[in-house]
Design goal:
By secondary structure, the chain is of the alpha+beta class. Helices cover about 20% and strands about 55% of the residues. The chain has a single domain (about 5-95), classed as Immunoglobulin-like, CATH 2.60.40. It has helices spanning about 5-10, 80-95, and strands at about 15, 20-25, 25-35, 35-40, 45-60, 65-80.
Length: about 100
């Protein structure tokens, strides 16, 4: 069974508890992450989470669930054009 088709059957949600514990469902894959930002592909599009001290607690690739702790400052859904700009900025940061 194809993993992407399995995940696409799941609903997408974001649960935030006191801006410190974040659970995202319907995640296809995590593109990149560090202690200030997570970029992930969900069944509803690309999602960028920004904050301080962000840490991956749990990744369930079979169910498409991600648990993150840290101080959440913002989250944004990106369209394809914004994602391409984000990718180029990540690459430009690596080669500075």
């Amino acid at each position: 069974m194809d993993k992407d088709s399995n995940i696409s059957n799941y609903n997408h949600s974001i649960n935030i508890l006191e801006r410190k514990n974040i659970v995202v469902t319907g995640v296809k894959r995590i593109e990149s992450f560090d202690d200030t930002e997570f970029l992930m592909e969900t069944v509803m599009g690309y999602l960028a989470l920004k904050g301080e001290g962000l840490e991956l607690l749990k990744l369930d690739t079979m169910q498409g669930n991600v648990s993150i702790k840290g101080l959440l400052k913002s989250f944004t859904y990106l369209d394809d054009n914004m994602k391409k700009e984000k990718d180029s900025s990540i690459i430009s940061k690596l080669f500075k």
